[in-house]
């Protein structure tokens, strides 16, 4: 847990400058679709009860991730999605355990959602989504910067080149039908684009 937390904090800070540089390029904002979406159960547990989460987590809390992201973007020229209160949705799941989704608006048409296990508060998934039909050119660049910061934050310096090559976000951008994947030491990634909607999903390693 401590190792990933330190890696995230360090990587987020170190990659922000590079992300800002890439955001000023002429590329469109990339889009992707989650390789795995949280499952909402058909039946929910009795009111007041919490079904323990049985899936993998990142070993750090959702709030710690949000704080690290906020600290990173507060010292940049990019909008800090994490300085505002998120929209919160509970996702009861009688089979896999209850989740809570915290949705942070990055800009019109783009958001970052952090999922936590309701029983422990631990981070289970990071999901970024951008809708090309709603993103202005400048907002698309902001979205691209967020993608760069998040992917770098969950990868080591040794695997970042392979991750970039596998996800190919810069070249794929909003190309419909894109389905790129990478499994790293600290996280697994999917970048999917469908119908103009780009989605990056970051999950614990497979």
What features would you describe in this structure?
The protein is an alpha+beta fold and 206 residues long. 31% of the residues lie in helices and 24% in strands. Strands 1-2-3-4-7-6-5 form a 7-stranded antiparallel beta sheet, with helices on one face. Helix 1 packs parallel to helix 2 and helix 1 packs antiparallel against helix 3. The longest helix has 22 residues.
On the 0 to 100 scale, the average pLDDT is 83
Strand % is 15-25%
Largest sheet: 7 strands, antiparallel
- Tell the overall outline: globular
Instruction: Tell me the Rg in angstroms.
Output: 16 Å
Question: In what order do the strands lie side by side in the largest sheet?
Answer: 1-2-3-4-7-6-5
**SSE ordering:** HHEEEEHHHEEE
Proportion of helical residues = 25-40%
Low-confidence stretches: 1-45
In DSSP terms (H or I, runs of 4 or more residues), the helix count works out at 5
Q: Kindly name the structural category.
A: alpha+beta
- Total strand segments: 7
Determine the N-to-C terminus distance: 17 Å
